[in-house]
Amino acid sequence: MLTEDNQKYWRPDTPAFADYYYHVIQVNTSTFDQYSFTINSSIQICAFMYTSEFDPTNPCSNRWFYDCSGTNGEVRFRNFFESRRNYVLVITTFSANVTGEFTIIISGPGLVELTPSPLNTISPPPSKSKNIQIHLFIRHLLDS
């Protein structure tokens, strides 16, 4: 769940001092092969994949690839993942200080373990499945 309690960071290639809420999910695959990720949302979103770890103070470090083409509310990517290697998926919004709802769908030949980062709220336990759907709900901030 992504709310005002989530941390914010400066996303690369954006204006200085713009704050973006983000959600971190650890990704581990059981088999070296190609996996497909689809992230659907009612808002414009970005997805960043990191190798090893994600450092919000240095968001370009360990960045493997990203997709900010979610202008229609959908981001898709497919790539080869090594087995038993730690990857980090960071979901954020295209625009600063915006929240919304999104769904992640992952498919591939092997098991995929997803572990959401600990927040101030209760997180679901890790999921292991060949086809995974995760629903993360976030609110839209109202301008006051």
From TrEMBL:
Name of this chain's protein: Uncharacterized protein
